[in-house]
């Protein structure tokens, strides 16, 4: 397959609002090729739009989500600066394709991580933020019908990430024992626990650093890492969504038509 042409095809689908068909329907390509498409897509967006890499998101960090793509490990996508909102945010459904919502814990880092960090390194360098991720795709009827190669190629279905402004040093939290309640218009619609994310979100970040090193990339100072959803994704609908974490942090997103 033509990596550059495929990346431009996905960018065009996003820009025109006309979703594409799954790449896996007509193309035979590997996971390695899928990451090449993603990396080329990010480079092309930077060339066209000046959008800079801001960090990474980690997908499929639980057995439930991995089963959707018939895999036994996560996958990552690249966050651009335009994907990030600090504090509460407003989102219009008309600006997106078929968005979902996932409450997550996001890490920021005060210095670069090594290529294979220990859990102690991740915790000592990290700050923890409450977050809501809004995954979306450039494919038609993408959830839950995608293959792993589609997810990786389409930048792990990156849409928007809304993070709380106030962070907590990661070494002050029991990161493997954080609970979360998700509300929609004041009604509880989901509850989650941080152990859903690979047993501990720190292990998710560790996995990412090691995976990135295979592609010649690293987690650098100032980057954000969205570590994985605490509950199965829910459909994004109009109204106010609020994720409240046992760390005392909250984050909200207001969704309009």
TrEMBL record:
Gene3D superfamilies: Fumarylacetoacetase-like, C-terminal domain (3.90.850.10). GO terms for cellular component: cytoplasm. GO terms for molecular function: 2-oxopent-4-enoate hydratase activity. InterPro entries: Fumarylacetoacetase_C_sf, Hydratase-Decarb/MhpD_sf. This is 2-keto-4-pentenoate hydratase. It comes from Alteribacter lacisalsi.
């Amino acid at each position: 397959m033509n990596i550059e042409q495929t990346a431009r095809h996905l960018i065009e689908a996003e820009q025109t609002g006309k979703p594409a068909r799954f790449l896996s329907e007509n193309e035979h390509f590997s996971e390695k090729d899928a990451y090449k498409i993603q990396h080329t897509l990010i480079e092309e967006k930077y060339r066209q739009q000046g959008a800079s890499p801001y960090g990474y998101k980690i997908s499929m960090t639980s057995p439930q989500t991995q089963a959707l793509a018939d895999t036994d490990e996560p996958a990552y996508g690249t966050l651009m600066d335009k994907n990030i909102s600090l504090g509460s945010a407003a989102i219009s459904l008309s600006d997106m394709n078929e968005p979902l919502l996932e409450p997550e814990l996001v890490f920021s880092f005060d210095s670069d991580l090594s290529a294979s960090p220990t859990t102690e390194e991740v915790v000592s360098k990290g700050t923890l933020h409450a977050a809501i991720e809004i995954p979306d795709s450039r494919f038609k009827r993408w959830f839950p019908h995608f293959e792993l190669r589609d997810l990786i190629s389409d930048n792990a279905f990156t849409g928007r990430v809304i993070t709380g402004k106030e962070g907590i040093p990661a070494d002050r939290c029991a990161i493997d024992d954080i609970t979360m309640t998700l509300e929609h218009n004041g009604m509880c619609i989901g509850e989650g626990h941080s152990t859903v994310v690979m047993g501990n979100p720190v292990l998710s970040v560790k996995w990412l650093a090691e995976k990135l090193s295979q592609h010649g990339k690293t987690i650098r100072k100032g980057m954000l890492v969205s570590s994985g959803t605490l509950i199965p994704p829910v459909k994004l609908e109009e109204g106010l969504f609020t994720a409240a974490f046992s760390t005392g942090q909250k984050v909200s997103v207001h969704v309009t038509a």
